[in-house]
Amino acid sequence: MVNTTIESTTDQVVKARIGRSTGPQLNWLQKIGNSKYLGLYLLAPAGIFVLLFFVIPVLLTGVFGFTNMSTATGITGGAYLANQSSMQALGDRHDMAALAEQINQVVYTIDETGLTTAREAGISAATLMELRAKFLGQSFDNRRDAERAIKKLNNRPANTRALKVLVKYFERSVINTRYDSKAEILAAIDGFGVSLTPEQQAAIIDVTYTGWVFSTNNFKRMISLPDTKKTLINTLFFVFTTLILFNVGFALVLAVSTHYMDAGPAGFFRSVWLLPRITPPVLYVLMWKWLAWDTGFISIILGPFGVEPKNWLLDSPTNAWTFIILINGMVGASMGMLIFSSAIKAIPSSLFYASEVDGATRAQQIRHIILPQLRFPILFITCYQTLSLLTSFEYFLLATEGGPGGSTEVWALSTYFKALNNYAGALEYGYGAALALVLVVVGVVLSILYLKLFDFKTLTAAPKIE
Amino acid sequence: MTGNYRKWPMILFLGIMTAPIILMYFYLFLDTITNSPPGSLIPNELTTEHWRFLWMTIPGRPSIWVATWNTFLFASITTLIVLVISSAAGYSLSRLNMPARSFFLGGIMVLHAFPTVTLLIAIFLILQMLGLYNTLFGVIMVKASLELPFGIWIMKGFYDTVPWEIEMAGIQDGATRFQVWTKLMLPQVKPAIMALGIFSFLAGWSEFILPLVLAPDNEVQVLSVYLAALIADDNNFDMALFKSVGLLYVVPVIIPFVFFQNRLMNIYSGGNKG
Amino acid sequence: MRILLENFTKKFGDLTIIDGMDLEVHDGEMIALLGGSGCGKSTTLFAICGIHKVNGGRIFFGDHDVTNVTTQERNVGVVFQSFALYPHMTVENNIGFPLKLRKESTGDIKRKVGEIAEMVHIEALLQRRPGELSGGQQQRVALARALVRRPDVLLLDEPLANLDATLRLEMRSEIRRIQHETGITAVLVTHDQTEAMSMCDRIAIMDAGKIVQITEPKDMYDNPVSDFVAGFLGSPPIAFLSGKIEDGHFIEPSTKTKIPLDHEMAKSNNGRTVSIGIRPEYFQPNNGTAVSGKVSFIESQGRETLYNVMLPDGKILRSIQGEGSVAKIGDTVEWGINAPKILVFDEDGKRI
Fold first, then answer.
1. Cβ-nearest to A278 among B122, B173, B257
2. Is the pLDDT confidence value at C113 over 90?
3. Which CATH superfamily is domain A225-424 in?
């Protein structure tokens, strides 16, 4: 009761004030403005964007992962084409080698279609009339037989060339012709004189389809390829090493050491360590290349010591990994640095005073006062950065491209190479999507896990105005 | 800070660790205006030749000005979309009751943590199907969409810190929730909008993978793709030229960074990826 | 152990907080540094424990010069205003922390923690964490942690400020009891005069980085050296009137009331403009020299009642009276000043 009274008074006030000042034409705005669905209205644009380019891609990655989509199949759909390879597949996959043999043949059939087209093409009517009278409905298994039969006609073509032209009109084959639909190719085969059982029809549709189809082959292939295992090991090595050394380890070093400085130098170091993050990746990696190039900084510096100039970035897997981890790590350290720094700042200064009074050395203060307070931020950074390291490949692509010899190829990078960029130009969207799907699933699972971990309830406290 | 621990060991240690970054930046600048003899790091002449790309287009590449304009369009339109949509959605999630509210909140949080690059293949195919491949429009939509969960999350966080009393007072004074949002809440979160705006602009300006995959052609090329293609071209290796293009490219990033450092630090620690 | 500060100077950047302060705390004594915020009392405490480095002068514990000794090596115990308990450690670990840092054996630590816990009455709380304790319990833990290492001196920085009123009363006597039992030299920093007066052997009252007066509480109340000290001690506070000394009397300017003063003093200061301080307990009905004014404010404090009496020129006299008073706001009253108890200050606020 009390509530409704308050609401209705508020309503009246609203109507009184706004109604009077802005006039009735704004009523719809008022309605939306006070609607209990206002939240949804305000959320809707975000929803559309996110749905279109975020949620749907997640789902479609799942769908595409189960297809054989590639540059060969196209991405929108395909035609039906019986060619050497699909006939081979008919024999191999469906054990219908005999059928394939039949379809694979070229036959010459004297039929109405052939006669009509020949007439339209200007072949003499007499010849065609005779042909029709004598051979209509007959088939010849090869060109020679057909030519021999035509030669026997009274009104036969004047020369061999004309004969060959004429025969051509009756050549019947389903091989190497594109049919736009299932019905067309089946009709063609039927017209070819081969009658198919339903099983045979299905098999033919299967092998002749040139568009993408659903299959689980991607995953079978993924498991069977030795490359997969190598990439997986590379990825795990990269994620853990970078995470421990830089994203958590060095970030802690930065946060703690700047804590023990005056504001001036501390601010300077924090800014400088943010530079790798804000520098566009292309340029950032370029600067590393300058360091590592055979005419670059390291080679010049080491020159006087008798070290041959070389491209340090790509000369050996060890060096490549060192650079990769440095390149990624120096970017990654800054986020941990910022989060840890603000966590240290949140520790009451009296705790530092108290521990110094209690006799703590700097190391003991770090060990007993700072680190215990950073437990949660460290967990947070570990979770977040595991995911981002697992899936990022930008710096790999720019720095080593997975080289030398694939030694720095990680999962996300190989996904990119398989589906979006490779030297051969044969892009395997389906297989790439399947590789990406593994990351997507890991991503979704970990994100949901983090949601549970980081106390979702406190973030979703109900609004105080009902 | 007490006087019980010496500071110089810390400064010395970090100074050594930080030297490579400073060195790289120093030479980034130096090498664009000087020439050094082979095998030396000490320049022997000043030159403007490395900046020639400004007035003459490099063969086979789009004009640098086209690429710069494209980058600007890409970054600023993305920013605009992110700002408008996340300030509305952030308010909605922070303050308004709605059906399935906790579902949306959870969804945004999950998406926020979710690694977006994994979606590249699907997005590439979707743009192909929609006919938006190789258009700035398409890649802008994609970039904005992928930035949105972060933007919404940040804005929600800022709205959360505005006292409820302001909103309650607004309602008592007869404003609708919509008016409360536009007239009372938005002014309160201006600094947040500013910070998110700078952040989004920088993110757009630096973006490489999305334009590379979704809009690589010369007419729609952005600076990151331009520079990467320049570097990747083995026939014309010219480190000083690369650095000059890079310096031109990085200036619009460094300037806001210097001026808005503290705000950016806040937002970078707000759970951005990387 | 005696604490001695010689010519102690502390600056923050260009700002001088304390300039050449001297202070001696006797062995086993508890002294209060009393003053308003920003007077430098906490700075002094932090200098004694070494958290702040001094910019000039020397600090001695006993005969040992500790000026350049780090905090860690000074062997002081400090109780902070916020208690500064380590939130991630149990009470036992909190108290044992200083001993652990000294690498004492686990057995020793356990024994000593047990003893001190018994002394401050928190034996039952040892396995809890600070977050699960009440303010008073946290205070006791902080005290135990400060004392467990047997420090040379105990420093207390506003230790009661974060407690509610009843606990404050209880902890006042508790801290004093523990200080007596251990016989430790202690320095209490506080802005609360009641705390300073009730807990300490001596009070050093500070203003703008200087010690204005240092003496025993009762003496300071009765014989303040300046109007600042007189105004700082006493609740409700002392009331001041300004006027001239003429013929052995202080002339109240608005009512022309003549208040007799000490002969010697009045003679030597004849004609001088002074201010006099009258404490509320010395302005009572039927008592010495009568002054009339209007009751402008009444505050009942239960057992006693405080009256503000406004003189014609707007000056206020305060009176605190027991039961039986019946004056109402607006009444004109004529109450008396106990002339011998008047404190007289010169133009600079110095006691005459």
1. B257
2. yes
3. MetI-like (1.10.3720.10)
